[in-house]
Amino acid sequence: MKEIKESTETEAPSGLNDRIAQRVRDLRAARGLSLDALATHCGVSRSMISLIERGESSPTAVLLEKLATGLGVSLASLFEAPAPAADPVSRLASQLQWRDPHSGYVRRNVSPSGFASPIQIVEVMFPPKARVAYETAAREPLIHQQVWVLDGVIELTLGDDRHRLETGDCLAMVLDRPMSYYNPSRKTTRYAVVIATAPSSWR
Questions:
Q1: What are the residues facing 174 on neighbouring strands?
Q2: Rounded to whole angstroms, how far apart are CA atoms 71 and 68?
Q3: What's the pLDDT tens digit per position in 100-109?
Q4: CB–CB of 147/156 below 8 Å?
Q5: Contact, 64 vs 135, CB < 8 A?
Q6: How many alpha carbons fall within 13 Å on the CB side of residue 183?
Q7: Tell me: the pLDDT tens digits for 170-190?
Q8: Which domains does the chain have, with CATH numbers?
Q9: DSSP letter string over 107-147?
């Protein structure tokens, strides 16, 4: 975990908050949603959304997932650069890293930021005994996700279904139900998340 922190770009919290703020503002404007409408869609108060859009809050992963659901995008999309990337190569040194202030888990956006692609790849370092529960609901278009455990163990609950994944295991899912992650072990679990937005031809 230390090696990743030293070899990747870690923006100051204020810089990350500003990036998230702009992404939420841009996505909300693109969908023609008022603050009140987005609050209704995602179950986050209007005042909290306003704070996030002004970069005056350090939101947790759970809160950001609610916003992503209301905006119809993946959580990873909220960390993308506002301007499209011309370079299809994402260098390790420039990959954005973010730490959830509640659970302490660290996520690194591996895919080229802003590059036009329906696929996103994220690497996660999940601390021992940490738990994160998302109130995920269906989005339009559908978002498919696969979790591939690179080292360690993670327990995932999708609605009423429970899965224990160990090193090398991979779980495919659609983001349409509440889900939770739990690391029952005494060491950090490292896993990759591959996210794809489903085109209409997949339905």
A1: 144
A2: 5
A3: 999 999 999 9
A4: yes
A5: no
A6: 21
A7: 999 999 999 999 999 999 999
A8: 3-79 (1.10.260.40), 84-202 (2.60.120.10)
A9: EEE-SPTT---SEEEEEEEE-TT-EEEE-----SS-EEEEE
